[in-house]
Amino acid sequence: MKRITLLGATGSIGLRTLELVSSFSEEFSVAGLAARGSNVELIADLCRKYAPRAVAVLNGAAVDRLARLLPPPRPELLSGPQGLVALARDLEADIVVSALVGGAGLLPTMAAIEAGRIVALANKETLVMAGSLMTAAARRHGVPLLPVDSEHSAVFQCLVGHNKGDLHRILLTASGGPFRELPKEQFARVTVEDALRHPTWKMGAKITIDSATLMNKGLEIIEARWLFDLKPDQVQVLVHPQSIVHSMVEYIDGSVIAQLGVADMGVPILYALTYPERRPTPAARLDLTRIGQLTFFEPDTERFPCLRLARAALECGGSAPVVLNAANEMAVAAFLDRKIGFTRIPELIERVLAEVPVGELRSIEECVAIDADARRRVQRSVDTLAGGK
């Protein structure tokens, strides 16, 4: 039986993972759970249902509430960033599912790698922020990084059984988000509610906004560069509104292999948990005769500048992707809090990228420091904009 430590247990990926644990209870058990701590009651319910040995909550104030909801015998309760690191590093587990949203997943994911644990990676920000450091550590410790993002899982599946030296490029598909056809002049009137209406996927708020700006695809370009050891120009993006082709790999002879399926995150999650094997599931089956037509378009970086900014940060290298990610997280949070408008998101990111000098990224500690500095810069800009309203 595989023991799973789940980072980000209360998010959409985390809850879907736990559904699969329940469906395959003879194969998986929960060793540990981690969450930010915004929904203590849900964490308590998950503890009662899955009986983890330990639970880590990023919000230290939530631990006391959790303890009150879980009378003894209860799991070991850990708190704060170091609690998440300890859970990923010290708790015996066969696989760590990294599904925390944003930079919060950086340190515990690295801790899992350094402890020699297999990592199922749903937290793209870790490779965006520290791709060179993460992949070097994974090679050093012999740890596989198994992608959970649907696009990267698709690429991973298209590479199985093929010589990586024969790869020409990969084609990441994007739904285009809710504003794929919205004229640029209307973007300034976009509301939070508008941006949260994704046409295909049901996801958390942050990733849904990233999909609306196409920053999600920009982050995925950077993630793919490190995950598959590619040159930046070997990662291309196609807008594919039907979300049936999850991504494609083109080989040097012109052959293109694609992974298709209905939009169900359970498929890539389960593949990562059972790799290199597959399991039968009751998931809906793809019926191409009902779909009828698959369409593809070039992304419009004029209307969606976040995609351009992400590629520029990747090509710049060093600390630039750290700044990009931090600025985006802060800008998206400010938009969700209704402190800034939708079009301010790329403006703030571009401003901070221009302000912060790019340097070599030598350690995780340096990565954390650059991240914190970029966040402070964006917060000052947000405060100025909010004060001017």
Structure description:
- The protein has a domain at 2-147: Rossmann fold (3-Layer(aba) Sandwich), CATH 3.40.50.
- A hairpin with a 4-residue loop joins strand 10 (245-251) and strand 11.
- The chain has helices at residues 12-23, 40-50, 61-69, 80-90, 106-114, 124-141, 150-159, 192-195, 205-213, 215-227, 266-274, 288-291, 305-316, 320-336, 344-355, 364-387; strands at 2-7, 28-35, 54-57, 76-79, 95-98, 118-121, 145-147, 167-174, 235-239, 245-251, 256-260.
- The termini are far apart.
- Helix 4 packs parallel to helix 5 and helix 14 (320-336) packs parallel to helix 16 (364-387).
- The chain is of the alpha/beta class.
- It contains 16 helices and 11 strands.
- It has a 7-stranded parallel β-sheet, sandwiched between helices. A 4-stranded mixed β-sheet has the order 9-8-10-11, with helices on one face.
- The mean pLDDT is 95.
Shape: globular
Give the C-level CATH assignment of the domain at 2-147. Answer: Alpha Beta
Fraction of residues in helices? 40-55%
CATH superfamily membership of the domain at 2-147, which one? NAD(P)-binding Rossmann-like Domain
Taking all Cα atoms into account, the compactness measure Rg is 20 Å
Please state how the strands of the largest beta sheet are arranged side by side: 4-3-2-1-5-6-7
The whole-number mean of residue pLDDT values reads 95
Gap between N and C termini: 57 Å
Coarse structural class: alpha/beta
> Could you name the CATH topology of the domain at 2-147?
Rossmann fold
Count of DSSP helices?
16
Unreliably modeled segments? none
CATH architecture of the domain at 2-147: 3-Layer(aba) Sandwich
> How many strand elements?
11
The helix/strand series, from N terminus to C terminus, equals EHEHEHEHEHEHEHEHHHEEEHHHHHH
Estimate the strand proportion.
5-15%
